[in-house]
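Task: sequence design from structure.
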């Protein structure tokens, strides 16, 4: 189906990563968080699980950086997964989609990389029921359980929720990397965190980047390449 032709007025297309990813405007439209999380993901991981994949923004951005990965997405919303499937088709990508709640999903499967943009906001849920009122410690625990030994876990959260995430990650992961993202305020608005399952390495905390950093959002540069360009690594 050609969604460029058949889309309704409310389903117009918008792009991310300088036009490398196309999305149908719908139930939930990914924000810059999706691009940042995809850019932060470690490279060259064959199997990737996107927990709470929603309409596919994070996963499709990762696939734009590496089209050889095998992406699996899990989400509790059938409606979100339906829109994700359409977005995958729009970008000519293949994604395995699973309708389940990560907090109750029973499986023995593990992955080289597990990524998540979790429901970190507190308050009254929006109509799409995304990003609200999750038990982040439990969410992180369930995500890390799906990481293979020596694999990676990668997450983006609001700055006010990082204590819950770090506490749980530290129990299972080493080589933790933390990158704050700053908006107009002098305090971080979002924080990216990455760790490796089963290692004992210490934590690296970078001084942070602006949330409107164009080399990532416009040009699709990965965080690793961005930090190398800046001379930070």
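Answer:
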């Amino acid at each position: 189906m050609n969604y460029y032709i058949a889309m309704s007025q409310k389903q117009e297309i918008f792009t991310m990563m300088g036009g490398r990813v196309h999305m149908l405007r719908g139930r939930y439209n990914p924000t810059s968080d999706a691009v940042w999380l995809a850019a932060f993901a470690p490279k060259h991981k064959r199997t990737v699980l996107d927990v709470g994949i929603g309409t596919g923004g994070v996963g499709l951005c990762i696939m734009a950086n590496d089209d050889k990965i095998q992406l699996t997405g899990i989400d509790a919303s059938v409606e979100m997964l339906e829109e994700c499937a359409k977005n995958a088709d729009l970008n000519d990508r293949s994604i395995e989609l699973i309708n389940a709640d990560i907090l109750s999903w029973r499986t023995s499967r593990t992955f080289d990389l597990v990524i998540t943009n979790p429901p970190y906001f507190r308050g009254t849920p929006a109509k799409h029921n995304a990003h609200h009122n999750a038990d982040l410690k439990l969410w992180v625990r369930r995500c890390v359980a799906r990481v293979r030994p020596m694999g990676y876990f990668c997450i983006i959260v609001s700055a006010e929720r990082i204590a819950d995430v770090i506490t749980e990650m530290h129990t299972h992961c080493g080589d933790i990397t933390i990158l704050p993202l700053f908006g107009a305020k002098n305090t971080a608005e979002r924080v990216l965190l990455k760790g490796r399952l089963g290692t004992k390495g210490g934590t690296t905390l970078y001084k942070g980047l602006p949330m409107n950093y164009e080399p990532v959002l416009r040009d699709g540069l990965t965080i690793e390449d961005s930090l190398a360009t800046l001379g930070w690594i």
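The first strand starts at residue 13 and ends at 16.
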